[in-house]
Amino acid sequence: MKITSYQHGDPCWIELASHEAASGKHFYSALFDWQLKDMPIPDGVYTMFAIEDDDIGAMYQLPQNMIEDKVPTHWSIYFAVDDLDASLEAVKANGGQVILGPHSVGDAGKMAQCRDPEGASFSLWQAGAHIGSMRMGEPNTLCWAELCCRDVNMAQAFYTQVMGWQVRESQMENFTYYEWLQGDRAVGGMMAMTEEWGDTPPHWMPYIMVDNCDATVAKATEIGGQVCVPPTDIPEVGRFSVINDPQGGTLSVIRLTMT
Asked: Coil, helix or strand for 214?
């Protein structure tokens, strides 16, 4: 489905920072059949991921100094905002941090990278000529953004103020799941990290919609990825798996029962 605009608080873009951009480009283009469009930037190359020439995400090579500082390969999720400056003030007023920006990206728009009070990173995007992902609601596009954190009350207090979201709780078999709502529309979720997560830091996880979860996971392992959570059914939702790319970048794939 083609997208022409986003509401404030909508997940609107995904971006991979990779230890080995060439390997990452090969992995994701093979896994999701994404086209690659290289754009020169001052520090190297910014590669757009596209479906039929419609941009749906991007990646870039992590600078060597960040690799040496132990910054891992990681995915970032961008959320659309109506007024970036006002949103950054809300981030700071509610216990978060602005760690990069705000920056203008030519005429495409303005961005900033932030951390919530527990340290989970996310980015904000005020669109100019580029809205973000031009497709959603179809295979190989972002379909869900999930916060994994330890203090769900702190996260609720922060994101409801910054993003304007409401929260809906659902009791699952062994835990409570939280949905982020824009009006009546769910745009993402949240779950509490237990002791089983070890020292994994709080983070946002992108979910990519796929036609066949098991086939996608098999393909990922064939081309160098690793399975973190094997294909698992979520009643009335779909079948999902968590995978690592060859550089350790983590994301989830899901076949939705209803789309």
From this structure: helix
Mean pLDDT of 129-158: 96
In angstroms, the CA 241 to CA 218 distance is 11
Question: In sequence order, which residues have a C-beta less than 8 Å from that of residue 37 and are 6 or more positions away?
Answer: 47, 48, 50, 55
At position 226, the amino acid (one-letter code) is Q
Is the pLDDT at 132 greater than 60? The verdict is: yes
Helix axes 213-222, 21-32, angle to 10 degrees: 150
CA–CA dist 202, 120 (Å, integer): 5
Helices (H), the chain: 21-32, 64-68, 84-93, 152-163, 213-222
How far apart CA 44 and CA 215 sit, in angstroms, is 34
- What average pLDDT score do residues 1-8 get? 93
Please list, in sequence order, all residues whose beta carbon lies within 8 angstroms of the beta carbon of residue 186, skipping any fewer than 6 positions away. Answer: 168, 179, 180
Which residues lie below 8 Å from residue 159, measured CB to CB, with a gap of 6+? 116, 147, 165, 180
- DSSP labels, 131-149: -S-SB-SSTTSEEEEEEEE
Q: pLDDT tens-digit profile of 197-250? A: 888 899 999 999 999 999 999 999 999 999 999 999 988 889 999 999 999 999
